[in-house]
Every structure is written in C-alpha cells, then in structure tokens.
Amino acid sequence: MVLARLIPFIDRSTQDWTAEARWLRWLTFVWLSLGILILFSASYPASLAEQGHGLHYVLVQLLWVAIGLMGFNQIVHTPLDRLLKLSGTLVLVLLGLIGLTLIPALGITVNGATRWLALGPFLIQPSELIKPCLVLQGARLFGRWPQLTWATRLSWLGIFGAVLGSILIQPNLSTAAICGLTLWLVALASGIPYLYMLMTAAGGLSAAFLSVSINEYQRQRIVSFLNPWADPTGNGYQLIQSLLAIGSGGLTGQGFGLSQQKIHYLPIQYTDFIFAVYAEEFGFIGCVVLLIMLVTFATAALLVALRASQPLHRLVALGSMILLVGQSLLNIGVASGSLPTTGLPFPFLSYGGSSMLASLATAALLVRAAREIYDAEVLELPIRRPAWSPFSRGRS
After folding, report:
1. Residue range 44-82, pLDDT digits in tens
2. What whole-number distance in Å separates Cα of residue 54 and Cα of residue 44?
C-alpha cells in the first residue's frame, strides 16, 4: 500500500475515483510522457556538446519526474481542505526562499536573472515552486472573502503583492505575470466586486510598465517581438530561429529527432523554445494534436470546476487549469511570435526540475479536486457517482 502511494502507475485505489479524476490523471501521464520524448529530441545535441553525452538532460529530468510523481500521489491522496490549510505556511516559506535569491551571496544568476538557489549540484527556482501554493491560498482567500475581516484581506493581499514584487525584482516579468494573472482570475471567478478587480488590474499593468521601463532587456524583447528582422543577429535572432523551425515543420513535420534548428541554431531549444522543436519535427498536424490535448485537459478541468460541491474546491480546479493550460498557451504564443519573448517554460515539456515539480503538484491538485467533486472522498471513502456523467459509459 505504501509502495502504491509512491508510484502512481500501480495505484489500485483509482478504481474508486470519479471518472473525471481518472481522465485527468491519465491525461497528465500522457502529457508527461510526451514531454519526456520531446525533451530527449530537443536536448540531445546540446547535451552531447555541453555534457559529453546526449542523455544528460533527460536523465536529470527523469530524476525530477520520479520525485514529482511521489509528491503527485501524496497530494491526490490528501484531502483538499488539509492542503488548503497548509497553503499559507508554504507561501510564506517560499516567499522567504525567493527573498534569499536576492542576496548576492546566495542567489544564482543565469542569463542576467537571479532566480535560483543552489541545492547541492542542482538549482531550484522558488518562484516556480510557489505557483501551486498561490493557487491554493488564492482560492482560500477569495473563496472565503465575505467571511474575512479587512485586516486579514489586506494582510494576504500584501503578501501576494510581496511575492509578485520579489519575482519582478529578480527580474522575472513572465513568472510574475502568470502568477498575478492566475490570482486575478481566481478572484474574478470567486465573485469579488468588479471595482476591486479593475483597480487590481490597473495596478498590475502599472507594475509591468514600470518593470519594462527599468529593465532595458525587457524593452528590447518587446521591440524585437514587433519586428525581429530589424536586428536578425541580435535581439531578433531567437524569435527568427523559432519561426524558421516552426515553418520548416510544414504539414507533417521533419520526423522525430530530425529537427535541424536545434543543432546550434535555436537558442535554449530544450527549455523556453521547446515548442519550436516539436513543431519542426511533427508539423502542423502534430501541433493540432497537442492543442487538442490541451483543450481536452482544459475541458475536463472546467467540468470539475462546474461540478465541485464546495466553492473553494471549484476555485482550486479553475486556478490549476489556468496555470497549466494558460502557461502552455503563453509558451506557444512566444515561440510562434504572437507574444513578446519571455522565459516561461512549457509545463511537462521544458527542461527544469522546479517547473516539473510545480507542474505535477498543480496537476495533482486538479485531480484531487476531481476526486472530491461529490464531497464523498474527503475521508478516502468510495465515491458514489450520479446517474449520468459525460465521462461515464452510460446510465447506471
């Protein structure tokens, strides 16, 4: 039984789960498996050149996957109300870790941004790890908004502001934006008055404008996004190579492992621009399949949110969907030139241990919310299904 809790693939308790929970669980595993295959192809040349053997990045990623899956299974077997109670403490701890990255002696700088802390031979990114915790605490705050005092409301709004501000200082505009957008949409779904939402949106846009005004490289990214061919060997190089990769894929793609742009042409091809490698190897048809998978995942998540018996659980499901699917669409938009270039990973596809742990934890929250749709599994009891469900095979 303990082993089953550590290895999700042999978890026999799934037969008592809701159909929605089982669907989301297997969609997560399909998404994860696809990500490992794409990472293998995208990272092989760089891994061979930088590390001496082509499997280095995939093996490291598999290590993080193993750790993440243990956490995944632990979360799906933990009542959501208990996780909600822990979320505040976790947000404060991770806010402290984000603050440590700003200390010159502790923070690790990569490509001009100080976002990492050293954990032995590995690097962790607290701003990634805090994402699922923000979903939980955001749902807890906004879902209980009418019952809270203004002192409690303002205290947590201040903490959220400190989190977003600390991430901006690193600087990391893209992560701050996705975290802020997720919290804003969770608040909107909870029924917070529109006046407060408009004021918050105005504040967020002002902070983003200030960040772009202060950081020269962010302004250059926006300018290069509008016309990358104005500086094809400088700021526009990354986007141009990404567009060449996507365009080279054609209808059916070059074939798995046969991308040419990943061979010393496309920068960071196994992290932020991994979608471009995927598009080159699998073509338009492969991109459509990937988008169908994302739409299916989002649809299942929205059904969970609509069917959830408790408002907080509904907000957790919605926030988890926004974080996973929304971030994926933003990554695709960046790689295809529809959005300014940002350092936003593709969940389950991009290389990175912190991103993998955060993605698996977020997916686990969604699965757990699906398990508790009918409010009968809080104590791990067998579920009692309704007479009909769009995921069921027929009428019971």
Report:
1. 999 998 888 889 999 999 999 999 999 999 999 999 999
2. 5
Tokens of 38: 């794409």
CA dihedral 108, 113, 115, 117 (to 10 degrees): 0
Residue 110 pairs in a beta bridge with 113
C-beta separation of 272 from 334 below 8 A: yes
Report whether 5 contacts 380 (CB < 8 A): no
Residue type, 93: V
CB 160 within 8 A of CB 130: no
pLDDT at 7: 62
Q: How far is CA 74 from CA 92, 273, 324, 362, in A?
A: 21, 31, 19, 12
Full DSSP string of 111-138: TTEEEEEEETTEEE-HHHHHHHHHHHHH
Residues in the chain: 396
DSSP state of 267: T
